[in-house]
Amino acid sequence: MNIIFLLLFFSLLIAAAFLAAFVWSAKSGQFEDVEGPAMRMLREERKKQTTNS
Q1: Alpha carbon distance, N-terminus to C-terminus of the chain
Q2: CA atoms within 13 A on the CB side of 24
Q3: What gap in Å lies between CA 50 and CA 44, rounded to an integer?
Q4: Can you give the pLDDT of all 53 residues of the chain as single tens digits?
Q5: Residue 29: left if φ>0, alpha if ψ -120 to 50, beta else—which one?
Q6: If DSSP codes are grouped into helix, strand and coil, which group holds residue 30?
Q7: Three-state DSSP class for residue 31
Q8: CA 45, CA 39: separation in Å to the nearest integer?
Q9: Which residues of the chain form beta strands (DSSP E)?
Q10: How far apart are CA 4 and CA 6, in angstroms?
């Protein structure tokens, strides 16, 4: 029975660590521009095609 409590404690500890990492990354601006790099890649591809023609 003690192992269940130990596993529960460690699983909550890991969940809290992941939550803290998510909050830290959200506050530091990691998720602000989700679509920018993909759209920038497409725009660069068009520029390369038009300049090569």
Answers
A1: 73
A2: 6
A3: 10
A4: 899 999 999 999 999 999 999 999 989 888 777 777 777 777 765 555 556 65
A5: left
A6: coil
A7: coil
A8: 10
A9: none
A10: 5
How many independent structural domains does the chain possess?
A: 1
Which domain range does residue 35 map to? 2-52
Cβ–Cβ < 8 Å for 46, 40: no
- Show the tokens assigned to 11: 């699983």
Residue 8's identity, in one-letter code, is: L
Helices (H) and strands (E) in the chain, counts: 2, 0
Return the amino acid letter for 30.
Q
